[in-house]
Amino acid sequence: MSQGINNKVVILGMGCSKFGERWDASPEDLMLEAYSEAMSDAGIAPEQLDAAWFSTHMDDVGTGRGGTPMGIALRLPNSGVTRVENFCAGGSEAVRAAVYAVAAGACDIALALGVEKLKDTGYAGLPMATVGTYIPQWYPNAVAPANFAQLASAYSHKHGIAMTELKRALAHVSIKSHANGAKNPKAHLQKPITEEQCLKAPVVAEPLGLFDCCGVSDGAAAVIVTTPEIARSLGKKDLIAFKALQVAVSNGWEMQSNQWDGSYVHTTRIAAQRAYQEAGLTAPHNQISLTEVHDCFSITELVTMEDLGLSDEGAAVKDVLDGKYDADGAIPCQIDGGLKCFGHPIGASGIRMLYEIYLQLQGRAGARQLANPKVGLTHNLGGQPSQNVCAISIVGLLDA
Amino acid sequence: MIGITGYGGYVPRLRLSREAVGQTNAWYAPHLMGRKGTRAMASWDEDSITMAVAAARDCMGAGDDRSHVRTLMLASNTLPFAERLNAAVVAGALSLPDDIHAMDMGGAHRVGLSALAQALSNVQAGQGDALVLASDMRQTRPASSQEMDYGDGAAALLLGSENVLAECMGSAVVSVDFIDHFRATGQDIDYHWEERWVKDEGIAKLMPQAIAAALAQAQLQASEVNHFIFPCVFPKMDAQLARSCDIAPEAVVSNMNDTVGDTGAAHAVLMLAHTLERAQPGQTILVSQFGSGAQAMLFRVTSAISAFRPARGVSQWLAQGVVERQYTKFLSYRGQLQVERGMRGEQDKKTALSTAWRHHKATLGLVGGQCRVTGSVHFPPSRLSYDQGKPLQDTQQPYKLADRPAKVLSWSAEYLSWHPSPPHHYGQIDFEGGGRILMDFTDLEVGQVQTGTPMEMVFRIKDTDDRRGFTRYFWKATPVRSGITPKEGDAA
């Protein structure tokens, strides 16, 4: 086992734009919002950034490919900007690159910034992606809601849980996130919803309705990382350190073999175990204070609770309905509203998750502040249940 | 002995209600009100190629390794490609050998019988078994009688010299330029001359010539014909022709006009396939069709008839029909009603032909790769196996999945993307014996499948590229409704 990343790198500053249908803002404007807040939080000058990683996914409607969109938008001093892209997990990937660069000693201070401008397509939902020349010749013209909705059919079948009961739990997932989002001024969706609204909403992809789907949002988020020593030398206290950064990527086993049963996300289970080991967590369900998971759809959040080991297999429906993941529950999930309500600007989402954990651990989360959180986990999933990129990060107080 | 060794058919699941068509168009064409019955209606993802593949699979079943077929003739006047061998698409879907003699045939309305006659000559000449496919999906004008009369469908006959179940006794043809209808190259819809003239000067004069010649060749009297097949949309024309040829009235075979409609180039062969299901050893079948002249062929049924049965057969396809009363659905499927697609419908469907060729065995034939060491099945096939922790290189051998039993692992039906027939249904399909594909579903309503529902594969249109006029095909999953479910080990 490698030495891992535990406690080698800390957060120097973070920023996050307002998420939402930002008709007023270009991708460059969104980047600047997140960057300005992060730089101000870090208290450094652009010349102090040794390198930068830039996450964006939908280049056709957003910023274009390469590092130049960020270099130009932020007028960086000819910094080394590298664009990274890993589906919806690209934000976490940018963070991983920056953290690794600092841990390696190659950089003293590094920036990771993610942005997505989704609302210039002219239609609802995610933009249509291109997938090369072979896949369209056999693969369905798949869309995210129906890809993830399949978790519901397989989960219901495997655990013998009636779809009506499962849908009630899924409604609870969304109601909880809406309640949380209502306390977050940067969230895309800030209105509470009722169970009736949820269950009566139009179907998007059987069995998921409108309120089972996350927001499709514009937004940007940024993090500046450095070593604990440099952070202290810059006068920072209550340092938040990376305890684990893990990425697990499908190799086609779920998609092609007959062994995966379709009811869970295989890579989440692998990444979680690796992350717990890297962070030295032996009883994660007792040690993790809060999670920000990839709730692109309500069913994704529900199965993720099991895949992370926070709920026993088949027990997430009960745990969710019992309020275990509510704001006042044992392990609050999506205290900022999550993808569901904070929003999901793809390339920024992984960093937005980190932003909330960072605020919570520093006691700066305002109306939604939790009591004494120590360790937070982010789970950032790109792709679909049957083949995906799963990034799990664990952060906590450096000295805890 | 030379003759038919197997038969099959295909009638699309949807049956358009003539009453529904008549009611919708009553403001304009009141004379079309009151028409009874249904006509077969291809789904949006079907055409003359896909229906031909369905008929061939009905004929040959899952157990036939198909390597004995040396000739493939695809007869149709509505083949989707003017240049690109349509029969080669069919051959690819059926995974027939590459060195097969495959050809498209068209022109005459009776081209199905022309192909049958030609293929029998090939067999006679010692060129091996032949597969004759006849398929048509004719475009018609809204509020025309043809829209009501025509139907979509296909039929298949396997010809050979062993286990012949119907021996060819005689074959005759009249080839003249009698134009009851025509369609110029590049046009979609036929132009018809007056019905009374067609009947009196065409059918009544030309058909008896061919029938008499075929009977003479077979050394049979007209009264000895047990089954008389003459497809025609004109009411009672079949009975009138039988009478004029001294064929017994009870020999006249139902032309399925009330249920299927006239399937054009396919119809004589489809009626023959239907008749063979109930024909008894020793009986004679006279199959004939009109068009650019006349053609007639005589078969005598042998004792081998009882040893053969198609996977489903025309009777079961008829029984599986679902009445469709949405006339606008029919028009939309035919491209005659431009429904709003939304921006998601603007997606480019360009096909990379170099990619298509690189993977043509997999995509056309639904051929995966089975690891010869572990038995694991891969789709698409790959150089490295997915075996966890021990991927094996270059161990996969071709493994056809198209005819294997399968079931649903997970599914959804979504209303977000543009789809010609929403919702867009797809899911993960697990094949018995190994193999998994995330694939489109077709011919079903929401609620008809769940995890575990048995499914079968059908060859369908994947996408149409309207900008360039290209159609790409792939396989889809549909619920197993009835008929013979392929068994594990049956498939090639």
How is this structure best described in words?
The complex is a heterodimer of chains A (400) and B (492). Chain A contains 14 helices and eleven strands. With 400 residues, chain A is α/β, with parallel strands linked by helices. In chain A, a hairpin with a 2-residue loop joins strand 5 and strand 6. In chain B, 24% of the residues lie in helices and 28% in strands. In chain B, the strands form five sheets. Chain B has a nine-stranded mixed sheet with strand order 5-4-6-7-1-8-13-12-11, with helices on both faces. The two termini of chain B are 27 Å apart. The chains are: A alpha/beta (400), B alpha+beta (492). The interface between A and B is large, with 44 and 53 residues.
Q: Could you report the average pLDDT of chain B, rounded to the nearest whole number?
A: 96
Q: Please bin the fraction of helical residues of chain B.
A: 10-25%
Distance between the termini of chain B: 27 Å
Radius of gyration of chain B (Å): 23 Å
The number of helices of chain A is 14
Task: Please report which band the strand proportion of chain A falls in: under 5%, 5-15%, 15-25%, 25-35%, 35-45% or over 45%.
Answer: 15-25%
Inertia-based shape of chain B = globular
Average the pLDDT over all residues of chain A and give the rounded result. Answer: 97
Helix proportion range of chain A = 25-40%
What kind of sheet is the major sheet of chain A? 5 strands, mixed
Strand order of the largest sheet of chain B: 5-4-6-7-1-8-13-12-11
Main β-sheet, spatial strand arrangement of chain A: 1-7-4-2-3
Q: Which runs of chain B of at least 5 residues are low in confidence (pLDDT < 50)?
A: 484-492
Low-confidence stretches of chain A: none
Oligomeric state of shown chains: heterodimer
- How large is the count of helical segments of chain B? 12
Q: Could you tell me the radius of gyration of chain A in angstroms?
A: 20 Å
Beta-strand level of the residues of chain B, as a percent range?
A: 25-35%
Strand segment tally of chain B:
22
